[in-house]
Amino acid sequence: MTQTSATHSPSATADGIAARARALTKTYGRGATEVQALRGVDLDLPAGRFTAIMGPSGSGKSTLMHCLAGLDTPTSGEVTVGGQQLERLDDTALTRFRRDHIGFVFQAFNLLPMLTAEQNILLPIDLSGRKLNASTQHRFDDVVDVLGIRERLGHRPSELSGGQQQRVAIARALVTEPDIVFADEPTGNLDSESSREVLDFLRRSCREFGQTVVMVTHEIDAASYADDVLVLADGQIRAHLERPTSETLVSALQGVRA
Amino acid sequence: MRTVTLASLRLYTRRYVAAFLAVAIGVAFIITIGALNASAKDGLTAGAGQPYRGSTLVASDVYEVADARTIVEAVEADGGAATVLGYAMEPLRAGASNGDSTIGVVADDAALRWQELVGGSWPRAPGEVLVDEQAAKSNNVSAGDTVQIGGREFDVVGVASAGEALTSSDFYGLWADVSTFEKSLWIDSLPLRGIEEGAITSVAPEAVVMSTDDHVRELQAEITRGADTLTLMLLVFVTVALTVAAIVIANTFSILFAQRTSDIAMLRCVGATRAQVRRSVRLEALAIAIASSVVGLLAGVGFGYGVVAVIRSLFPAVGLGDAAVAPLWFVAAFAVGVIVTVAAAWLPTRATTRISPLAAMRPAGDSDVRTTAGKVRVAIGAILLAAGAVLLALAVAGANVVAMLGGGVLFFVSVLVLGPVIVPPLIRLAGKVAGPLTGATGRIATDNAIRNPKRTATTTSALLVGVTLTSAVVVGMSSAGAAVDEESRASYPIDAALTSPSPLRADALDRVLAVPGVEEAVALDGVTVTVDGVATPVVGLPRDTSVIDGDRSTLPGEAEIALPFEILDELGWPETVTVEAGGRTIELRPTESSSPWGPTPVVDTGTLRFLTERAEPLALWMRTDDGTDVNDLVGDLEAVATSLDATLFSTIEKQDFIATQLSVMTAVVVGLLGIAVLIALVGIGSTLGLSVLERRRENALLRALGVTRRQLRATLVVEALLLAGAAAVLGVAIGTFFGWIGVKVMIEQMVSSGSVLAIPVGQLAAIVAIAAVAGVFASVLPSRKAARTAPAAGLTLE
Ligand SMILES: Nc1ncnc2c1ncn2[C@@H]1O[C@H](COP(=O)(O)OP(=O)(O)OP(=O)(O)O)[C@@H](O)[C@H]1O
Ligand SMILES: [Mg+2]
């Protein structure tokens, strides 16, 4: 069991690293029902790259992502995002930090049912109490056009297809220009055509907007869109693959399942 | 299916808490009223017999003091004994304390004395009185003091307790003394002893004589009837509370079953028939009904006994007895609780059978369960509204109370039916108005509040019932108050007067004006005259009559004189009177009715100038401020009067009495309606709480996207405010409308001066404010629950 660091260059400074974890552990429950979801994870996610996290079910992918994104507090260890150490923040400050620096795309239930697509996309800006200025308006237009959802802006989620809903969610994640976007199985609910579109948009956001994207996925196809792939098993990082081919991915995954 | 019912009950107990509370409060309300009813009957009937202790016969329907005197004398001449129950209301002067007091009779015959001697001795001779224990305390009088009652001196020789008797007086004197207060003496009945029935009927044929036992039995029956009438009136409020409870229950059940759609569909998928599903949920409702009714019974017993104990210790004068709840009350309250619950749950449980097995296939947890107002609902609502409006119009036109009640009910039901159409736009409007203040939080709250119009409407309608009735009562009562005020201003054009047979001192006017609460005062010049031979001071009208606040039509004109009742009565209501002063005589016509201008006759300035050149101030008229404490004001004026050797004539207490009674009545009615409002608030809390459960995912998403705990709590507080506020504003609007109708139908017919609608803006604003604050309270628990949602919770498929 060799532990591989995700660090690209050992000399990477805080500005080159979008998110960093040190000795991260997460334990759920107590006593007989205790589950160690993360057992000492160290990782550095370089800025401007599209990273996929893979691993068997129950390996701790979602837990890792939640801890990195400040959605959940780790049992021990440190998380730094955009140069900010998350443990230092209280709940309110952490919430504001999420609002301004982190974007999310989930597998489902991404959108508020009573808001239109446009309102959903602008929600984080709305919540921060900021007015829509020229630069955010520009960003909004860019994102909406790239994602091709302009015609759907006035619709409510229940009037959108699953793929369209995910695109709206991606638009929302990108509109605030966050330091990092986390996506947990964003294509889990989609057919292969829609999956391809969504993954393509995530990669384009990386290329065209220089966005850092971290995606949890089960699908080899999905992971092949990524620049880096981290393989997780039993709450630990087992492998780090750079621009892997399908074959290298399959063998890496079979390695951890065995 | 029994396993399913039991498992559901176990799993969802907490979600039923609102339905549970609503039923329990309603049932407890009934039991409390039962306890009060029993305690009132017990206490009042027990005391009914006490004043007749020692007597064998009772003579009643004796109204004239002269008749009572005849009976007493006849009985005593025959070797029997008699006393009189009743009292005279006379002004009291005891040390520093002044005011009216009552004086009753203590029997000459020891066996007929029903009071208990607590200290000192019984009165033996005229001029000696007993003071009641309570009055002794409040007037600071004790045995050995001298007091002035009705202008006569009395020695207080002992202290008496009235025990449980229903009629107690402040003082008790011998019949020989009390019977001299002929004008103010009110006679209830005469307990007699040692005499035959026939002996009375021969001297006082009008009197009704019966055995003491029969008389007391009759009294008790009357008291019981009175208590039962009161109880029936209280049950009207129970009905209101239970109606609100039914709305809350129906709402809770329909939300719960909507949330369980996929569970129920799953049951259908695995082979449960419609009937099985329906039976299962109805059993669930029955179980809730029984459990909550039992809790209500227990709480009601505790509360009922508690209320009775509190009233007995705080207000012993009310005369409540032991609390008890008759078995019939338990049976009835339990049955009502169960029936209301099961009936309210009927429609929601029926709706569950419409859930198709297919529903299980749809994604779970999607809380987008929109309901909309159907065309049928709108049509029915419109028809009811039209019918109600027509009836209300007829009621106003014909002053018909029955049409008013019917129209009111129809109108209100139409508002409830149309709720899903009316309420959401109202909330959207409110949300928009408040938008700039509340930002994104407010927008989310507004959207949440109206996303399910039917649920929103039902939740608000529960509160709407209470607020509407309360506002209607407040508007009606304040209009009644205004009407009474106007009447009393007409019949009491001056609030108070100081009169004196000899000229008032020069500083009299200034001293009266210095009393806090006296707004204006004017001195009236006069002279002592004889009116048809009766000597009396008479005053002329002041030049400035702005002190008069009310009807001026009874002011004496040229060749007229305003005479008080006493003089008119003494003279035998003559057509004209001859007034003589210092040898000058003049014929004057008394003004139509007896004068409201005080005990001194009044003439116009011309007449006074004819009667004398040297008029001197003999009276002071004053107008007082309504806002001043009446007891303080009258006390102060009495003190000034005493120091000026003048007599105070005051209508302030009389004017205040009715106003006080009206406000007490308003307070009682509003308090009783408060129970319905309380239940409605439980309903708002429950809807919010259940919505929080439903929106767990959304709330988690909001938290992930950057909504702080505080903001999330705020969305629920704002949502509650919007729900409660909409109900309050709509309720106050409809209630004011109902109040206006009520005034048109019931009050305006009775007063001379057209419209008397008085809208108590302050009180109505207070209703809205209280509803809003209560709404915020109702949101405390749900908002805390919402704020506990972890941002990572429920973001993945389960
Ligand atoms: N709230 C929780 N309470 C208790 N245990 C939990 C909780 N959340 C996750 N776990 C446990 O932690 C471990 C890691 O869970 P996690 O959700 O991170 O896995 P995952 O890799 O995302 O799996 P999947 O691919 O199925 O989504 C699992 O064993 C899971 O049972
Ligand atoms: Mg997962």
From TrEMBL, chain A:
The ABC transporter domain, residue ranges: 19-253
Keyword flag Ligase: no
Gene3D superfamilies: P-loop containing nucleotide triphosphate hydrolases (3.40.50.300)
Superkingdom of the source species: Bacteria
CDD domains: ABC_MJ0796_LolCDE_FtsE
SUPFAM superfamilies: P-loop containing nucleoside triphosphate hydrolases
One Gene Ontology term of the molecular function aspect: ATP binding
GO cellular component: membrane protein complex; plasma membrane
Keyword set, alphabetical order: ATP-binding, Nucleotide-binding, Transport
Protein name (Swiss-Prot/TrEMBL): ABC transporter ATP-binding protein
TrEMBL record, chain B:
GO MF, any single term: transmembrane transporter activity
Domain annotation MacB-like periplasmic core: ranges: 19-185
Matches recorded under Pfam families: FtsX, MacB_PCD
UniProt KW Membrane keyword: yes
This protein's name: ABC transporter permease
Membrane topology qualifier: Multi-pass membrane protein
GO CC, any one term: plasma membrane
UniProt main location, coarse: membrane
Family stated for the protein in its record: Belongs to the ABC-4 integral membrane protein family.
Record's subcellular location: Cell membrane
Key words, A-Z: Cell membrane, Membrane, Transmembrane, Transmembrane helix
Residue ranges of the TM segments: 16-36, 232-258, 285-308, 328-347, 378-397, 403-423, 461-484, 664-693, 714-741, 761-781
Sequence ranges assigned to domain ABC3 transporter permease C-terminal in this UniProt record: 236-357, 672-791
